[in-house]
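Q: Start with the shorter request: fold the first protein.
A: Done. Sequence, then structure:
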Amino acid sequence: MTPEEILPDALVERIRNRAAGYDRDNSFFHEDLADLRDAGYLKLFVPASDGGLGLGLAEVAAVQRRLAGAAPATALGVNMHLVWTGVARVLDSLGDSSLAFVLKEAAEGELFAFAISEAGNDSMLFDSATVAAPLPDGGYSFTGRKVFTSLSPAWSRLGTFGRDSSARGGDGELVFGFLDREAGGHSTVGDWDTLGMRASQSNTTLLEGAVVRPGRIFRKLPTGPNQDPLIFAIFACFETLLSAVYTGLAERAFELAVEAVNRRTSAKYGGRSFAQDPDIRWKIADAAMALDTVQAQLAAVASDVDAGADHGSMWFAKLVGLKLRATGAARAVVDTAIQVSGGASYFRGAELERLYRDVLAGVFHPSNDESAHNTVANAWLGPLER
C-alpha cells in the first residue's frame, strides 16, 4: 500500500486540523490515535497473516513522513510504538524470534512505548541507572526514573531496561523487558510542558518496584558496547523512523514556503510575487537541495536495513549520520521557510511558528551531535588511544 492509501487526504487533513489545538492546550493526541488505530496504523509492521500491513522499514518511513507533515508531535509519539514493532520485525528477519510476542500483541491492539532514556546517562543502551532486581520466579522489579516517555497517557506495554549489579559475578548485566500498564509500580510525572512537540506528552516515568513478569524479560546483556542484534535493531529503527519524522516536518515547511512565496507580492517587482525575487529563489533552491539529499539518504538506509545489507562496523556510523543529517536539514529548511514567508509566520498559532518550535526537539534525540561525530570518527579512524 502507498502512504496515500494508508493515510488518505481526508484523514491527513483531520489530523492537521487538530495539531494546533493539541499544541495550544499541551494535550495528548487521543483523537489522532483513535483515527490511526482505525486505519490500521499501529499494525504497519505486523505481518499480513496476523491482520497487519506487513510493511518494511523503508515503507513505514515513507508513511511516517506523510503523518509528520500533518502533525509532527503525533508522528513522534506514534514513532515509539513503531520502533518496538519495527525492532521485532528486524529481529525476526535475522532469525531471532525473541520479540515475536510484540507483533502478536500489536495485532491485538496493544500500544508499545519506549522508556529507555535517563537524565545524565550518556551511555544510553550500554548502561543504566535503573535498578533491575531479580525475583524468585524469573521476573524482575525495576526502580528508576525514565525521561522522554512518549505516549505516556496511552501506552499499554512499556519497553524498558535496568541494571542487575549482582549478575555476572558482580560485573552486572542489563535486563530488558516489557511492563504491563496494569502491573502497577509505576507513575507518570506530568512534567511535559515544553517548547515544542507538545502533543507527544513525553512525560517522565517513575518505576517504583515495577514488576516485569518472566515471559516479558527478553534480553540480558553485559554492560558496555556489544554487538547483540537487539542493539542494532533498536538503533536502526529508532534513528531511521526519527529521521523520517523530521524529514516529513521539513517537507511540510518547504511546501508552506513555496505557497507563501507565490502568494506574497513585492512592490519592488511591480506587484509580482516574491517568486520573481532572485534572493528568494536562491533560498528556495537551497532548501530543495537539502531536502533532496536527506530524502535520498533516508530511503537508502531504510532499504539497506530491509535488505539485510552488510555494512559491518559502519552500520552505526550510517545510522547516526542519517539522524544528524535529517534533523539538521530540517532545522535549516524550517528556518528558510520562516525567512521567506514574512512576518505572519512569527505570530502564535501560525503553522510555521509551530513547526519552528517542533523542529528544535531534534537536537535532543540520541544520538546528539557530539556522540554522532564520535561514532563516525571511531568507525573511520578507530578509537582514541589511551
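Q: Next, the second protein, separately.
A: Sequence, then structure:
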Amino acid sequence: MNLQDERIRTACESLSRDAIADHYPALAQQAVDSDASYAQFLERCLKAEQHERRRRSQAMLTKFAGFPAIKLLDDYDFKFAAGAPKKTVQMLQSMAFVERKENVIFLGPSRVGKTHLAIALGYLATQSGVKVRFVSAADLVMQLEKAQQRGQFDHFMRRSLLGPSILIIDEVGYLPLQGNQANLFFQVIAKRYEHGSIILTSNLSFGEWDSIFAGNSALTAAMLDRLLHHAHVVQIKGDSC
C-alpha cells in the first residue's frame, strides 16, 4: 500500500465510507481497463457504498426481527395448501398493506404453512428496509407480564411493540389466556390500531376466539373490530404436512 492509498483509506474511514475504501482499488483498475470517465468511476464507488449500506441495514433489521428461521415466499408450496389464495399472497408482496397500516391474518389448521407465510412476508419487508418484530402469542404475553411486574410496561410497549412497522404474532389460539393476560394482549392490538400493521396466525376461526381470551366476549369483539377493520384475511385449507 502506497501513501496515496493510505490517505484515501484514512479519508474514507473519517467519512464512514468503508465500502469505498475496500472497493476503490478494483474499481479504479476497472476504470482504467474500460477507459471510464472520472464521473463513471465516482458513480461506481458510490454505488458500492450504497450496496454495502443496504446489505448491513438488511442484516440488522433481520436480526432485530427475531425470526425463528428464514422463510421465503418462493419456497411455499401452494399446490400442497390448495386453499391458500396465491393471488392474495402475491399481492401482499408489494408491501402496500404496510404503508396503509393494514393487518394480515392467516387462519387455518396446524401445519399448513401459516407461520411460513407470515415469516416470509416479514423477511421480505426487512429486505425493503421495514422494521419488523416476530413473536409467538405465548412469548408476547409472558414478556408483557414481566414488563408490567417490573413497572416497565409503557416503555416495553413503545420500544418493542409499537416501534416496528410490522408486528408478527404467531400461534394465537394454541394456549388460552387468563383474564389479565387477555387484557394485556388486547392493549397491544388497541394501541397498534391504525398506527402499524399486524401479521397474525391462528388455528382457530374467529367464532372460537372467545375460548382464547378467558371467555370475555366483549373484549374479544372489541379486539376483532380493530384487527379486522383494515385487514386481509387469508384462509388456508389443507391437510397437515
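Q: Describe the second briefly.
A: The chain has ten helices and five strands. The chain has two domains: 3-57, 73-235.
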